[in-house]
């Protein structure tokens, strides 16, 4: 599916959510390609916006409680975002340390995943047969 098709599909899904035909959670379980959040109905849990991709974060910050975004394109693909609720961030030292730890772990995971993908591509053997 190319970008235009993905965007059109998300616009259709967003219209179904807005009309009440389906809920955001039902749409996520049915259409989401994110295995981490699809089973939870798209719920990403409590998180500070700055942990997300900039395009995702910016769209999230424009939403009001209970509102669903239109299609949002980020470096990870296309998204629909629903803001269920918001709360004040704990700015204590322990919370800041925890946040820094999570950010470093996410960065390290991304680096390791990219390295693993490069290794897999480098070690793959493709044999082209011609008739």
UniProtKB/TrEMBL annotation:
Residues 1-85 form the PpiC domain. Keywords: Isomerase, Rotamase. This is Survival protein SurA (Peptidyl-prolyl cis-trans isomerase SurA). Its EC number is 5.2.1.8. The gene is surA_1. One of its GO terms (molecular function) is peptidyl-prolyl cis-trans isomerase activity. InterPro entries: OMP_Chaperone_SurA, PPIase_dom_sf, PPIase_PpiC, PPIase_PpiC_CS.
């Amino acid at each position: 599916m190319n970008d235009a098709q993905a965007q059109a599909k998300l616009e259709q899904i967003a219209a179904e959510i807005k009309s009440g035909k389906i809920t955001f959670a039902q749409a996520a379980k049915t259409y989401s390609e994110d295995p981490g959040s699809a089973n939870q109905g798209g719920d990403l849990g409590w998180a500070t916006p700055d942990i997300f991709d900039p395009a995702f974060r910016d769209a999230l910050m424009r939403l009001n409680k209970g509102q669903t975004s239109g299609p949002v394109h980020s470096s990870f693909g296309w998204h629909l975002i629903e803001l269920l609720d918001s709360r004040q961030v704990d700015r204590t030292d322990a919370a800041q340390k925890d946040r820094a730890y999570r950010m470093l772990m996410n960065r390290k995971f991304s680096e390791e995943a990219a390295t693993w993908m490069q290794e897999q591509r480098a070690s793959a053997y493709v044999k082209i047969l011609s008739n």
